[in-house]
């Protein structure tokens, strides 16, 4: 299903992508040599000071550095990217698998971009087993009464689900493809239906968190999350919605998911039109202080590329052009391409309140890299 965006790219955009890709290759080659099998998160003054493998092995972003390494391995064929990715998979992440209490709904982010990527690109059988193991854990978090996948493990949050989950359920679709067992994909579809009904608002904005009674499945509330307030519009949540529902459509062919992805995308594009392509942390935040989150822009651009590959031909240019506008804004205004410094995408903010504001965060780098490689037809399909 779908047509590669690289087949649709005008010459000037293809030339732009080639130029940025060359800068990305230089940046990530240098980071590979400095970072190796440590797991980066936030760079401070051009240096990744924390090793998340030691600080918080099960942190939900710990799959993105392996994902960068696997994307670079696929794009360049250089085996030196494979070695640190494998070390992370076989040491840090295996330790997380062994510590069951550390596993939550973010196993997709962690293992799609590490073990499942390894299986897809090298046919490493042990990696396939790891992927199926954590897919079973994710399916086991499904609440059959409320038809949702539980997000986190804290007491009192048994009925919580979040929009980010739409990027984790591709692990379940993969598990069905691998095993022929329809239960994994059925859990993913039922969860996506619940997210569609309770997360996506009529105007295309999204709730971050939705809470259900875990015994009855009854919807209770949509509290504030990482955005400004309850009822506001956390931009990264919108970006997860664009990409996540588009992927759900790719895996199922269910037009309702495609329509949802398009509705969220149109809302997102209308909002970033006001800020030149770099998203605010929350599209409904106060006018001051003006706090940005370039992560949301990178994720949304990747999702817009996904849409450009899925929609009918007459619609493709719209999504492709918006993806290009956003990517050019990020690379022009929010990137440090200096190979001697760690951290690529700047202006990243993890949340509106009490968060780290306008810093480089590694998973923005992943989505920017994946987007640019997709423009060239060189990206591995890891979702």
From TrEMBL:
<protein>
    <submittedName>
        <fullName>Glycosyl hydrolase family 88</fullName>
    </submittedName>
</protein>
<keyword id="KW-0378">Hydrolase</keyword>
<dbReference type="GO" id="GO:0000272">
    <property type="term" value="P:polysaccharide catabolic process"/>
</dbReference>
<feature type="active site" description="Proton donor">
    <location>
        <position position="164"/>
    </location>
</feature>
<feature type="binding site">
    <location>
        <position position="106"/>
    </location>
    <ligand>
        <name>substrate</name>
    </ligand>
</feature>
<comment type="similarity">
    <text>Belongs to the glycosyl hydrolase 88 family.</text>
</comment>
<dbReference type="InterPro" id="IPR052369">
    <property type="entry name" value="UG_Glycosaminoglycan_Hydrolase"/>
</dbReference>
<dbReference type="GO" id="GO:0052757">
    <property type="term" value="F:chondroitin hydrolase activity"/>
</dbReference>
<feature type="binding site">
    <location>
        <position position="240"/>
    </location>
    <ligand>
        <name>substrate</name>
    </ligand>
</feature>
<dbReference type="InterPro" id="IPR012341">
    <property type="entry name" value="6hp_glycosidase-like_sf"/>
</dbReference>
<dbReference type="InterPro" id="IPR008928">
    <property type="entry name" value="6-hairpin_glycosidase_sf"/>
</dbReference>
<dbReference type="Pfam" id="PF07470">
    <property type="entry name" value="Glyco_hydro_88"/>
</dbReference>
<feature type="binding site">
    <location>
        <position position="164"/>
    </location>
    <ligand>
        <name>substrate</name>
    </ligand>
</feature>
<dbReference type="InterPro" id="IPR010905">
    <property type="entry name" value="Glyco_hydro_88"/>
</dbReference>
<feature type="active site" description="Nucleophile">
    <location>
        <position position="106"/>
    </location>
</feature>
<feature type="binding site">
    <location>
        <position position="236"/>
    </location>
    <ligand>
        <name>substrate</name>
    </ligand>
</feature>
């Amino acid at each position: 299903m779908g047509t590669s965006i690289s087949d649709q790219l005008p010459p000037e955009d293809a030339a732009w992508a080639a130029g940025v890709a060359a800068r990305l290759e230089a940046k990530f080659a240098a980071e590979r040599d400095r970072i190796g099998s440590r797991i980066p998160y936030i760079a401070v003054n051009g240096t990744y000071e924390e090793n998340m493998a030691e600080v918080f092995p099960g942190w939900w972003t710990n799959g993105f550095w392996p994902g960068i390494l696997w994307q670079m391995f696929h794009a360049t064929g250089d085996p030196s990217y494979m070695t640190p990715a494998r070390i992370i998979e076989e040491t840090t992440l295996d330790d997380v698998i062994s510590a069951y209490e550390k596993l939550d709904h973010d196993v997709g982010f962690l293992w799609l971009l590490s073990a499942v990527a390894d299986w897809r690109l090298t046919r490493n059988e042990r990696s396939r087993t790891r992927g199926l193991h954590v897919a079973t854990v994710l399916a086991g978090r499904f609440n059959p009464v409320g038809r949702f996948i539980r997000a986190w493990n804290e007491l009192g949050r048994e009925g919580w689900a979040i929009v980010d989950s739409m990027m984790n359920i591709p692990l379940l679709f993969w598990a069905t493809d691998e095993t022929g067992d329809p239960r994994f994909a059925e859990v993913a579809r039922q969860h996506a239906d619940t997210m569609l009904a309770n997360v996506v608002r009529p105007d295309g904005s999204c709730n971050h968190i939705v809470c259900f009674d875990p015994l009855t499945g009854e919807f209770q509330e949509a509290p504030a999350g990482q955005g400004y307030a309850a009822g506001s519009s956390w931009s990264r949540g919108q970006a997860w919605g664009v990409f996540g529902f588009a992927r759900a459509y790719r895996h199922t062919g269910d037009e309702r998911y495609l329509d949802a992805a398009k509705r969220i995308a149109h809302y997102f594009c209308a909002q970033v039109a006001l800020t030149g392509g770099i998203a605010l942390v929350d599209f409904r935040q106060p006018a001051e202080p003006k706090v940005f989150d370039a992560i949301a822009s990178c994720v949304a651009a990747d999702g817009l590329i996904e849409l450009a590959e899925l929609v009918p031909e007459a619609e493709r240019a719209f999504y492709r052009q918006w993806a290009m506008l956003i990517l050019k804004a990020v690379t022009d205004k929010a990137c440090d391409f200096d190979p001697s410094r760690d951290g690529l995408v700047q202006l990243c903010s993890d949340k509106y309140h009490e968060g780290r504001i306008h810093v480089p965060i590694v998973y923005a780098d992943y989505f920017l890299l994946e987007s640019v490689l997709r423009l060239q037809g060189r990206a591995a399909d890891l979702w």
